[in-house]
Amino acid sequence: MENTREIVLDGLLTFEKELCFSNKLINDILDKYDYLETRDKAFIKRLFEGCVERRIELDHHIGNFSSVPVKKLKPLIRNLLRMGVYQILYMDNIPDSAAINESVKLAKKRGFSKLSGFVNAVLRNISRGKENLKYPDKDKDFCKYVSVKYSVPEWICEKWIGTYGKEETEKILAALLEIHPVSLRFKRNLSPEELKNAVKAIEDTGAVLTGDKRLSYIYRAEHVEGIRNLPGYEEGLFTVQDISSCLAIEAAGINPGDIVYDACAAPGGKSILASEITGEKGHVFSRDLSKEKIPKIEENIERMQANNIEAKAFDATETDEEMVGKADVLLLDVPCSGLGILGKKRDIKYNASPDGLDEIAKIQWDILLASHKYVKAGGRLLYSTCTINPEENEKQVERICKELPFKLIGETHQLLPGKDDCDGFFYAVLERQ
What we know:
alpha/beta
């Protein structure tokens, strides 16, 4: 019988050593152990993702009870302690004694018998004092407090406090730690009756669907076990897509029969929604830098029966001369820091850096310089990111208006977790002069 905690431990060690994407790693782990019971796989997923997401907070508490600084602990011991503390603080269905004892057993099993007493002592002391754990003083150092409380690096917290203020920043941070229901985007052209039937078929599986008032075809789904297993998935009645990107596409001003160019398309959600708006007489050119991602786009295109899309690999920092002046609408969902989706991609916050933000902004501008030429006179450019960083958003739009032949239509839109009930997302629509 597999030891589920040992599976999580090995996953955390791999994540820490290889700095790989945590969501891909946990999916690979669950695929490898697909024969386990649903309850065991849920435990593995919860504990792995929780330890990654709450790492800063877990290390803070460990540091308060450990005689050795967390960074100097053996990687295996460090991750064993993170697992134990997470179970003690956040998994109410796991007795503290079980979390502690199993951690001690694993330390011995993996050749650290001499440190098993240390593991036992740290976890028992945290268990005894869990109702009165100390955090940084909120009044004296708000930035450090929220950094530890919500497990986000201080430099990001400081940046957001400067942009959004203390109160809004804490709301954003709290929202990023909340459980995120899956967002289902149903086909835009379904009749009310067809949509009603599709929703009911999914609800009949035990899932709970809640409609979004902003767009009638968006539903949040809870208690779902496997999107691919839901009725209607294989038939292409819906796809997984957050409302934030759908609001951006709806605002882009796409009309039936339009030519749309999607320069950074993977995994294809925006291209497919745009194709449903353009209809059979329109055409969507779906492009992405990564050749490896094109099959995924094509898979979604085929499943959603979006036959007016052509998907190819192309570097958005280069200009496709054949497309110059031909697009009614250009979709630029550019590479970004991803700080608006920390709740879904838990490792981003650990790999991001201030210097990295500057480099990303440069790449964004290179894409704008190469791609803006596709828009015909009077056509539109939709600029979007999944971040809440002004240097990648508002300041880029300001630069577009100053240096490129575009004029902003209406206002820019910054959607915030904790405020707009969606991912952190930015979009702006500009018209070619």
